[in-house]
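Teaching note: in complex prediction, the entire set of molecules is handled at once rather than each chain in isolation. The prompt given to students was simply: 'Predict the structure of this complex.' The entities are:
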Amino acid sequence: MNAATMTGQPVIALLGQPNSGKSTLFNGLTGARQRVGNWPGKTVEKKEGYYVRDGIRYRVTDLPGTYSLSANSEEEIITRDYIASGEADVVCILADASQLSRSLFMLADYTGIECPAILLLNLVDVAEAQGKRIDAARLEDKLGIPVIPFVAADRKRYGAFFEAVDRALKEKKRIDIDSLIAKYHAIGDGIYENLLALMPEAGIGNYSAPWLATKLIEGDTAILDTVKNTVEAEAYRDVETILSSIQNGALHTSGCKFQWIDELLSEALVQKQGKPLLSRFDRLATHRRWGKPLAVLIILLGLVASFIPATPIMVLGGMIPRLGGPIAEVLSSIGVSRILIDLINQVVLNTLYFAVAMIGFVLGVNLVFGFLEEVGYMARVSYIFDGTMARLGLQGKSVMPLVVSFGCTIGGAAGTRVIDSWGQRVLTIALAWVVPCAATWAIVPVISSLFFGAWAPLVIVAIFLVAGLHMLITARIFGSKLIRQEDRAGLIMELPPYHKPRWKALLRSILVRTWDILARALRVIFLVSFVFWLLTYSTSGNPDASLLYRFGRAIEPVTIVFGLTWQTFLAYFASMVSKEAALGVLGSLYLGAGSLFTATVGSGGKVAVGLESVLLASLTAPAALAFIFAVTFNAPCLMAITSTYQETRSLKWTLRILGYYVSTSLILAFLVYRIANLFM
Amino acid sequence: MITLDKVGTGRKVVVSEIEGDQRFLSRITSIGLTIGCELEVLHNENKFPLLFYGRDTVVALNREESKNVFVEVVE
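The expected output is the structure of the full assembly:
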């Protein structure tokens, strides 16, 4: 029994190759009514949602983007298992109409599965602009299932889709497989017929006998196991005998599938001879010498551009703490206790400020880099940086978040959304944390020039060298868990044709998750700020009455091993909340005045008057160096941690990355301190 | 017959044989490369993936893997 008859809620699965527009359709259909998680026990994203029409709730599952229905990657296995489970009532296959011949491979591979389907010819407007005309009625006639010319980004065209889904639910038509079987018959000496005869006539579950026979020829071991468990032992021996006579089966069957596609299209597709294959811009974008600088330049410009939509929101957020004064006045006039006013003023208002400022920046980054992805440019970046990034176990696109992280790690983490593999996304974020962000340069030059004078630039060179090494090691440590062996296989990817951005759909896909992001950001930032506030709360207003102060003093015998005095350790600790805080907290501790909380969230990297001479008197040069390295390679800031949690959607991995950075930054401080002590 | 990585930029070829394990064959054929299909090499530069056009699509393929694709040059 399928889902529709059980719950009255039909289930639609979206199936298609990467770049076929599945996600656009999914967002267009479900809007905010979606849930994103991971498939149980897998590193692959699972997206589910629903839409309501005529009082009926249609559940939509966005299957992972895969090129075929073989079982060579986690994505393919998930997709196939889902289809086999019978959970879907209709499978909606998306093909890219602008690259129809290749894109219909998924349809051909699906043919023979016993679940009603519809075919969406997405990006039909791009195809028309290329001078292609597709006769959908003719295709529908040949395939036997609804075929809809479609533009996933244009919700005005969804009517035809809804109608086709209802038609498929009612008529339950499968793709007409006979003409494809006729092609398979040409393989070898009756190999296909003989295999087909050995398959259970009714197929196995949703897999029809002809589909099973094809997968066996392709050497699909998972299907071979399924067949072994179903057919008689004698029949299975015959299957094995036949299979032993085939080599490179996938070449034969894929050849048949494409012949079938070519035949389908010979009558349904008319195309004029098009423009040159690589445009002048593409020649530059993929040029061996100019491609990389161009990509870095565009990413940097993108980072700047992301401030255009972000700035108004960030400015608005910046005004929130100013409400503190008036609110405090009102509250104290009605007799609210001092501590509660402090709590509202410092924690609540700052949480709101941090969260709003962060959302603004995340939106800006997602808009700009979503745009570059949407028009097709990110695929070129992926190509040109493939070799470089492969050394870290990453795909070429990962260069973007890493470059953005020189500006701000929050943007780096948010930018990983254009990376389609979850494991690669988490690894990219883990590496983006190494990249010294802009705030680092508010601290490092101040302290290094104070202690090392003209030698200060050497400290900065050392930081970059250590950062490079750090990345290589971190990539190894995290890569072994996050990147599957099969993904390390070399690059095979398509470079989609450029097309005009579809702002509406892009905005929709970004805004859909904003509420979720804001809610999460508020929760995390509030919780951490509150704990930090408790730790730094002091009845006298000076740091020495706070818990953190006592903790710092108590733990100094341990931190001194890493070259950190209790003051520098607490500043290091506060730099996890905000990197700029390191100097403010040092000022507050060494000069013994001002609230530690305000020093952390509101100092903006200013150096307190008189701090420099106190630092010179109380820290040795090796201790200063240890502090510089500890802060530089510590977790970037609370908002970057929050942003990491949002993009990975995994508390486990966020805490892992956080724990890793706290330990490695202390280890680095230890090494730097010990080595420096030998020479200084 | 030569391997695809030896084909110069701008040349058109026809695929005559593809070697490799089941994974690779399944992946490369699903992106449109099959025996008998015509390709045009768009970029063949040292240290960069090969870029070619076939079946309506611009495809980037790792150099190492392109050694498994055997072709006849047609023009």
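Point out the following to students. The mean pLDDT of chain A is 90. The longest strand of chain A covers residues 45-53.
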